[in-house]
Amino acid sequence: MKSNTVPEFILHDVMLKIPYKWAAGEYMGEFLTQLKESGNIYSNRCPNCGRYSCPPRPVCGVCHTKTEPRDKWKAIGPQGTLLGFCVTEQSFMVPTTGKMLEVPYSIGIILLDGAPVTLQHRLAESDPEKLKPGMRVEAVFKPKEERLGNIFDIVHFKTIS
Ligand SMILES: [Zn+2]
Question: Full-prediction pTM beyond 0.85?
Answer without folding.
Answer: no
